[in-house]
Amino acid sequence: MSTAISWAQNPDGTPGETWDFTGGCTKCSPGCANCWAIKDIWRMSHHPNPKISERHTGLVCKAEDGSLNWTGEVRCWDERLKIPVENAKRRNHKPTAYFVCSRTDLFHPAVPAEMITAAYDVMGHCSDDRFIILTKRPERIVPVLYGEEGHFYFGGGDYLPNVWHLTTVENQEMADKRIPELLKLRAESPGWPVLGVSIEPMLAGIDLTRITVPLGECGFVTGTVLGSDGTSFSPGGANGIGLDWVIVGGESGKNARPMHPDWVRKVRDDCRAAGVAFYFKQWGEWGDAPIPPSGHFEFERDGNLLAIVHPNGLHITPVNRLQAQIGHWLEERQRTMMRIGKKRAGRLLDSRTWEEFPEVRKR
What we know:
Layout: E1 17-19, E2 22-23, H1 36-44, H2 50-56, E3 60-62, E4 68-70, E5 75-76, H3 83-88, E6 97-100, H4 113-125, E7 130-135, H5 141-145, E8 163-169, H6 172-188, E9 194-199, E10 211-214, E11 220-223, E12 245-249, H7 261-274, E13 277-282, E14 286-288, H8 299-302, E15 306-309, E16 315-316, H9 321-330, E17 335-339, H10 342-345
Parallel strand pairs: 1-6, 6-7, 7-8, 8-9, 9-12, 12-13
Antiparallel strand pairs: 2-5, 3-4, 10-11, 14-17, 15-16, 15-17
């Protein structure tokens, strides 16, 4: 199935494909609160095609208040593992980018290691295709691929040149926790072509040049994950071994939370300074609140559509006149945002799009 996700595009710029052979998940951090996949799975569980509905029924439940959530069940569909192999046999096949397990997490603890390594068998076989894996659980990658859990699937230094690994973070806490775990993959083999981070939804400011890594009882150290010149500590390692790609995006949907523009600019500027590819996906549901011709907001009319966003991640919505006046007086860097819809908010950052892709490492 083709995907509309703009960064998961084929090498020729056409839409890539999704490859879903697992279903179901569990929420594990604040970014999961408004998970889009839950709604998608619920919809497919009521699909008129019984093959589709039966496959997805029981993965999502509806509470009395109408809210949806994962049931906690995770399923594996072995028959779907062969999809890329079958596609590669087609006469008109062209190199394809696959978003792996787009509606769940390949490294969820309920997905057996045998299923994961079987997927890597397929990815290794389809060497002309690109596979993008996005996970919130990067701490499981090395134990499955290089450790006992996966029966030492890869030997020391082994890798697949067509597989990209990304982790998702939404705030500084998750960045500190997940990015160093992802970068352990390069410690096993520097050959992995692309390691990246998707900051979506971005719920607070993140400094990728100051990632904190605990050192057990010895305390902690802080450094950059955007590469290093080798003269100082870096959680990404020395000599530029760090993240290759950074994606940023705001949240969309009914309960979307706003994103402060300064958070995005900080990440973009740090990436540019380090020579790391930066991709801005979307503002999401919220955009800069347009100043009315009168010069002031109609709070009685538009208060429910407004949000005051503080640089520390806190936000107030709906907004009344008094809150806006106090907020402006207390902190000039607070931003007034308006729920204008994903399409209208668009993808422009400082009057242009940012669609940088990483240069693939060749070893």
